[in-house]
Design a protein that fits this description.
By secondary structure, the chain is α+β, with helices and mostly antiparallel strands. The two termini are 29 Å apart. The relative contact order is 0.20. The chain is built from 7 helices and 13 strands. A hairpin with a 2-residue loop joins β8 and β9. It is 20% helix and 31% strand. The longest helix has 9 residues. A 5-stranded antiparallel beta sheet has the order 3-4-13-6-11.
Length: 235
């Protein structure tokens, strides 16, 4: 990633620039709670209050809300995006793309997603702090006990940091990779690869989803495709 984002983008910058703006937040920054637990509601909070909540050392054992998956090129956020879009640029590795989306993620220490996949390519740029990604090939889906959340999301109920191997014994045999990101790093996550994101410190990330016409065709030619379809998993 080129540009000034990794130099300028810190929690205090967002607080100073956008602190009075109210934003919808996930009730918990642990997505396992959001999708498989009781924290399904949204909260509305000012950016200033949110930044204070994730940088405070006193969270009383409760996970804070989460400002994640914020589209920067939507009509609701475009005016704010204009103030910061000159700070970064992603490499154009897929010039034949049919579209893209840029998303912003700001999370507290130990924020984590579920293990899930996307049907488009993903470039995830670390701007501030440190973050770790676990990555699993598409064919490992059986060992992840995947569950359909909605038509756009299939996800695993397994917490890879504390897996219940009595309930999910096949997870003990899974093969995957770990990527540790520092400011300035970009991670490429190919379409259909299962992944989990987890912050090591308070972190700011920017990602670019890239849509290409041949992604579905590529997966349909994969040896695991027919088996995945026969078991009604999402690919």
């Amino acid at each position: 990633m080129s540009g000034a984002a990794s130099s300028f983008w810190q929690p205090e910058m967002f607080k100073n620039m956008f602190g009075n703006i109210s934003a919808p937040l996930r009730a918990s920054d642990n997505e396992i709670d959001v999708f498989f637990g009781q924290s399904k509601d949204q909260k509305v909070m000012s950016i200033a209050d949110y930044i204070d909540s994730i940088t405070s050392s006193n969270i009383n054992g409760q996970r804070p809300a989460y400002l994640g998956n914020i589209p920067l090129n939507s009509p609701l956020t475009q005016q704010y995006f204009e103030l910061i879009k000159s700070h970064f640029s992603f490499p154009n590795y897929f010039p034949e793309n049919s579209g893209e989306e840029i998303r912003l993620w700001i999370g507290a220490t130990n924020q984590k997603s579920t293990i899930h996949n996307d049907n488009y390519h993903n470039f995830n740029a670390q701007i501030f702090g440190n973050k770790t990604f676990l990555l699993f090939p598409p064919e490992e889906y059986e060992k992840l006990s995947i569950i359909k959340i909605d038509d756009e999301l299939w996800s695993s109920p397994i917490d890879p940091q504390q897996p219940d191997l009595d309930k999910f014994p096949s997870f003990n045999e899974i093969s995957g990779l770990e990527a540790k990101l520092q400011p300035g790093d970009i991670l490429f996550i190919p379409a259909f690869w299962w992944h989990q994101a987890r912050t090591i410190t308070t972190a700011i990330n920017l990602n670019r989803w890239v849509f290409t016409a041949n992604i579905c065709k590529t997966w349909q030619e994969h040896p695991a495709f027919s088996k995945a379809v026969s078991t009604e998993s999402k690919f």
